Amino acid sequence: MEECIFCKIAAGTIPCRKVYEDERVLAFEDIQPMAPIHIILIPRRHIDTLMDADAEGMADLQAMMVAARAVARLKEVDARGFRLVINCNEEGGQVVFHLHMHLLGGRKLRDGLA
Ligand code: 5GP
Ligand code: ZN
User: Fold this and answer.
1) How far is CA 47 from CA 6, 15, 63, 70, 83, in A?
2) Separation of 108 CA from ligand 2 center, angstroms?
3) 54 SS3 class
4) What pLDDT, in 10s, does the model give residues 26-63?
5) What sign has the CA pseudo-torsion 59, 109, 15, 48?
6) Which residue has the CA at smallest separation from atom 21 of ligand 1?
7) Which atom of ligand 1 approaches the CA of 38 most closely?
8) Closest Cα partner for 20 from 66, 77, 87, 83?
9) Tell me: the pLDDT tens digits for 102-114?
10) Residue 96 beta carbon below 6 angstroms from any ligand 1 atom
């Protein structure tokens, strides 16, 4: 996946502001934050979209959820509250086609999801 920007971040070819990592998952600051806290969580292994996650991908998704809780604690929004978002395919607003989850927080988020 030489053209994938998040694979390049996972490989260290493109720098990022890393906030968390484990065997399966890397989490880093979004380059264009939409909230005071905006973290991207990715599986190290390339998966195009949520719809492409196989059994191993589901294990990655579980690890991403565990990682999101760790990031929420690190960023001290675990009790205040935060939002997790996965955009899937074009109408879902997915721009980077390496599965990822957004963790948003640090202010009262808008009520509407869409
Ligand atoms: P999507 O719309 O695909 O769910 O979101 C992709 C997210 O990745 C966007 O919020 C965008 O700002 C972020 N992003 C895109 N390229 C980079 C990058 O090179 N570095 C970082 N840290 N974030 C990126
Ligand atoms: Zn990738």
Assistant:
1) 10, 20, 14, 22, 22
2) 31
3) coil
4) 999 999 999 999 999 999 999 999 999 999 999 999 99
5) positive
6) 31
7) 10
8) 66
9) 999 999 999 888 7
10) yes
